[in-house]
Every structure is written in structure tokens, then in C-alpha cells.
Amino acid sequence: MFQMKQLSCEEIAKNISGKLVGSIDHDITGMNRIEYARKGELTFLANPKFEKYLKTTNASCIIIPETVKEKPAKDKAFIVVGDPYHEFVKLLKMLESQKEKKSGYIHPTAIIGEDVQLSNNTYIGPYCIIGDRCKIGEFTYLHPRVTICDDVEIDDGTILYPNVVCIDNTRIGKNCIIHAGAIIGDDGFGYIERNDGSYEKVPQMGNVVIGNNVEIGSNTTIDRAMIGSTVIEDGCKIDNLVQIGHNVVVGENTAMAGQVGVAGSCKVGKRNRFGGQVGLAGHLETADDVILLSQSGVAKTVPEKGVYFGSPIKDRTKAFKIETALQQLPDVLKDFYKIKKVVIEKLNLKDFTD
Length: 354
Prior knowledge:
This protein is an alpha/beta fold and 354 residues long. The protein has three domains: 2-97, Udp-n-acetylmuramoylalanyl-d-glutamate--2,6- Diaminopimelate Ligase, Chain: A, domain 1 (3-Layer(aba) Sandwich); 164-312, 3 Solenoid (UDP N-Acetylglucosamine Acyltransferase, domain 1); 323-354. 15% of the residues lie in helices and 30% in strands. The protein has a twelve-stranded mixed sheet, with helices on one face. A ten-stranded parallel sheet has the order 8-11-14-17-20-25-28-31-34-36, with no helix packed on it. It is flat, with a radius of gyration of 28 Å. The mean pLDDT is 94.
């Protein structure tokens, strides 16, 4: 359930340019999914398969599409709009912007290194650690137990949630969001195999550079480069539990869902979309506007934009045809053995090998 400042149905309708129908004598104090909403809460209907809940939901106010002709019950209100999901998100953004934003505070338990540049509007929560020579921008918000190592730069308006770790020389741009437990700039996975089968560690001397308006999910790891920089360009959205290896470059406005793995020295194009558990082998490239569907495995460079699926990947249409054929394989085998039996009997053969 989402708690919010109390609003009337009329105020909500006005903010999203909707038409209010039904009872308006409600004070809305929260938001919830249509099937779980309670009295005093707002919800929305965007997917037709949830229309069945219109009669059973306890929500006091429901944002509905123009295609729904049902009238609200006596104790409920409908707000009629063209696109309920879009208008609901618009309302969420409005409410988020009204939240009180803390700034200009350093908790007494925080540890600040030498020669650190902090703006007067930086918020540093309990038990944060900031190393030497760091630069922290305006209205940057560090939640509890964030660790910033030496020579890290974080630009204006960026939020770091609890237990984020930024290793030496990391650069983070403006208005980024890094969620709890993410580790930015840890060592890349670099080793030389010795003749006896053991491993010699290769020093990782580079850093991570993150552009503006990037969001990084919880427990995601982005490794520092061996030399040079691992780069996440502007506008990228990276989900929880993603692994990005050393010296990777991720093009602007690329999105990656949970458990994606990108091996070292890959170059990912602009506006790529990776579904959950996609894996990229090292030292390859993807073109701009590539879409990789969930659990796809990429073993070589993808030179052209398109939608791909499978392991190794294939054009989506071809991959789906192969999957369909494989599903039919048990029935095909049954038919084959029936035909084989008939042929053997007719020709009096012991087997096809006769």
C-alpha cells in the first residue's frame, strides 16, 4: 500500500485531467493494486483482464479507461481518462515531487576524509564513510552506511541508497540513482593462468565512469577497468543483480533486466534492451537498437539491430520456429517409429540397416 498526502477525488481528477463520475465524498489517503485496495485508497484499471475486479474492489476511487461503460457503485468514484496507466504514473510523479527532500546535513557518525569538497546542500546519513579528495555535488543524498573511497566524484542530484560502495576514482554523473548494496568500481575478473594451472592476478588500475540520469539496481556490480574506464553512458537503466565486467562500454539509454551478465571488454550499443538472464561473452559488440529476449546467450558480435532470442542467439522469428519444432519433436518421433515398424514388417527387415 502506498501512503500519501490526503487528497479528494476532485483534486486527483483535476491533476490528471480526468472526468469524475460517481460519489465524490471520499478522502484518498493511499494507493494500491485493484485487487487489494481498501476503502480510502486509489487504484487504476489499465489491463482488460483486471476489469472483473471493478465489482469487487474496495477502492474508493478508480482511474478507468474511456472504453469501460460500467457505472460506479454508490460508494465509489471513477475517474475516466484516455490512458489510465500513463495518468497514474503522472500522479505518482507529482506525489514524489512533493516529498520533503532533506539536504544540508551531515550525521555525527559519518566519517569524512581529508580535502573533501562537499556542497552546503549535501545530505550524508549515519555511518557513511567518505575517503580523501572526494567531490560531492549539490543536493546529493547519501543514505546510511554508504562507503565512498578515495578520489571519487559524484555530481549534483544523485542518490545513493544504503550500503552502496564506490571504489577509488569512480565518477558518477548528475541525477543518478544507485540502489542498496550496489558496488561500483570493484576489481575486474582478470587473471593470467600459469603453467602449473594456478592463476596470477592482473592489477585493475582503471575506474568506472557513470553518465547522467543513470539508475542502477540493488546488488548490481560494475567492475573497474584494467586500464582506462568501464563506462555506463547517459540514461542507462540497470536492474538488480546485474554483473558488468571490466572495460565494458554500455551505450546511452540501454536497459538491462535482472541477472544480466556482460563479460569484460564488451561494447554495448545505444538503446539496447536486454531481458532477464541474458549473457554476453567477452570482447564482443552489439549494434544500436538491439533487443535480446530473456535467457539469450550471445557468443559473437551482433552487427545489426533487431530482436534476437536463444543460445546462441538467432533472429527472433527463426528462433521461435525452432522452439515450435522442438515442442513437436516427441510426436514426430512417435510417428517415425510407427512408420518404421510398418516398413520393417512389410519388407521383412530386421531393421533399416539391413
